[in-house]
Amino acid sequence: MRAGLKVGGWSAGLAALLVASVLVSAGIGSVSIPALTVAQVCLNALVLPTSLSLHGGGHTVAGVALPALSVSTTHVFHFQTPETSRIIVTTIRLPRIVLAALVGFALALAGTVMQGFFRNPMADPSIIGVSSGAAVGAVTVITVGVSLPFGLGLHGAAFLGGLLAAFGIYALGSRAGHTPVTTLLLAGVAVETFLGAVISFMLVESGNELRTAMYWLMGHLQNAGWGDVAATALTLPLLFGVLLGYRRHLNVLLLGEQDAQTLGIEVERTKRILLAVSALVTAIAVSVSGVIGFVGLVVPHVMRLLVGPDHRILLPTSALAGASFLVAADTVARSGPAQLPVGIVTAFVGAPFFLYLLRRREVSQL
Question: Is Glycosyltransferase set as a keyword in this record (predicted)?
Fold first, then answer.
């Protein structure tokens, strides 16, 4: 009960902070828009279904005409807002801001799981090779111009590259159905170094595409659209729910694998699920944003100092804090005279802060 109240209080506060961050960020740019106007524009976009109806004119399958489904909706709010503000908020700024929140949520979530899984405060989502694999996939498409089947473009190549790298590292680190954490960690370092060399080779051999590839490798959200938001928002909550279901398992794994086995945890099965879901979460984030560092490393540290190591509280709070952090970082990235890749901003903020924690010896022990 006490843990439930604590996670509820922290989650509510961080959710409110996230909403405030989105509203403030959407008003910042070359055209300044008050936060109240931004809120009214967002509320005007809310609709509720009022009726469902079937009618002819749908698709034909095997010579049979199927009916089409029509949904009638009505707007809940009708605030008077300037049309220019509505266009700027809904079509230009809000897709990028919402995607930043989703990516920050995913990276901080995966980082929290990886630090608990490896029982190592230096672990982050890239430790299982997803970021490097995604970078290889994306840079291959950018520099070589290969085309993937089924219409998969840059995002698809990055997603597949990240998953292949992660599952390759898992295969290299496993023996007879057992996956020692230390072996997995070393395999990740080796594969990540190798993939880094592959990326460097492709960049050296690239021509006019070098700038585009480098921009992607530094992390960016500049071309975000509602399609990216929808694809991320449809998959991320399900994966978040799976990881939440294993929050108690993560707590027990902190005691060591032998103790976890004694307490009834199926250690190897749990490890496979945590690795697979974390790889998917990271691959989804990296595929739409490029490589953004330090979110999955620093945010879980900060939240662990604030709320403690209990993953029942740490998982949701770290994810929400990561969302707010990346929204703020992306706001800084796009507010200057020249838009910066957001990965540069997170590195500028994250690296000194992490060094400060090390200097003060406040890096929490798992």
Answer: no
